[in-house]
Structure formats: C-alpha cells, structure tokens
Amino acid sequence: MGSAGSDPAQTAQAVKILIAGGFGVGKTTLVGAVSEVAPLHTEEYLTRASAGVDDLVGIEAKTTTTVALDFGRITVSDELVVYLFGTPGQERFWFMWNDLVLGALGAVVLVDTRRLEVSFASIDFFESRGVPFVVAVNCFHNVRDRTPQEVRTALDLDPQVPLVMCDARERTDGRDVLLTLIEHLMARRSAPRSTV
C-alpha cells in the first residue's frame, strides 16, 4: 500500500511487449482482444496505390492495414501494467520496429500457416537483437491445418522458443499467449548462465 496521497498509477512498474508478425496475420486483432482499454489503432484503408506492393494472396478480404502501431494496456495489479505495441507488418513500415523494440521485455510473433514465409523477417529481427519471443500460430476460424511440430520445422525455430496455437480474436487465447511469453521470460531468467 502506498503512502497517503500517492497515486498507484505513478508507482506501477511498466512492462513493454511487442506483438509482431507479417502483414495480415492478426496483430491488430490480438491487441484489441486482450487490451483492457479501447486500443489505439493506426489503421488505414488499402488503396489502389498499394496494389502490387501489398501481397494479398490468402488474405483477399483484408481492407485495412496498420501504418504505425497498435497500442493496448493490461493492468495486472497496482504494481504492474503491461503495454502492448503491435508492429506494422508491411516491409515499407519496418523502419519503425527499431524504435518500437527499445525497452521491450519480449515479443509475440504471430504467424498464419497459410503464409508462413511472411513470418521469417519477424523471427530474424528478434533473434538478431537477442529479444526473447514466443511464436503464436493464429488459427483463423479455428482451422488447424498444420501441427505445431510442422510449423516449428517450417520456421526453423530454436527448440527453446515456445510455440502455441491460438485464435487471435479470443481474449482467453490472447491471455494464454501472453502468459506463455511471461513463463518463457521467467525460465530464461532463472536458467543458469554459461561460464564459458
């Protein structure tokens, strides 16, 4: 309990988590599903100017795209607040990732089994910067057309990287993805360090 007159929001520890992945994998949807506040979205309509630039194969019904970031918040307790930053998925907006990753505790890489190749850049980004991450397979309309092991093999994931199946629209699935990331971060922290 804080001292009289203290504001718990001022004393809460803030944690930053990125939600990343390729274009159209469900990042905006995941942030919206788990955020306790109406998330901030920087969605814009796709236009004719993006024809030939944005690959809509497999996501033909997509009409909008994130051009900067998505932002959401989860208050875990009076002492802990989690801020979620959804990254833009299109290559022309990747320059923002370098700023968004600053101070991030970890990340979720959301993938779509219909287009696994759009996930490689996200995985490479976090691996090259030593940022811990988990992979969440967004099972659109609850379709599970690949096993977790098939996805792990296709993405060439390190065995220590957790992989979970989810529906980005479901709050409980989103919560489970974030809990998997927290468990992964805690396990890394408690693992003995190499003396080599």
UniProtKB/TrEMBL annotation:
List the PANTHER family.
Answer: ATP/GTP-BINDING PROTEIN-RELATED (PTHR42708), GLIDING MOTILITY PROTEIN MGLA (PTHR42708:SF1)
Organism of origin: Streptomyces pimonensis
Cited InterPro entries = Gliding_Motility_GTPase, Gpn, P-loop_NTPase
Keyword Lipid biosynthesis listed:
no
Cite the CDD domains for this sequence: Ras_like_GTPase (cd00882)
Task: Print the keywords alphabetically.
Answer: GTP-binding, Hydrolase, Nucleotide-binding
Q: Which family does it belong to?
A: Belongs to the GPN-loop GTPase family.
> What name has this protein been given in UniProt?
ATP/GTP-binding protein
Superkingdom assignment: Bacteria
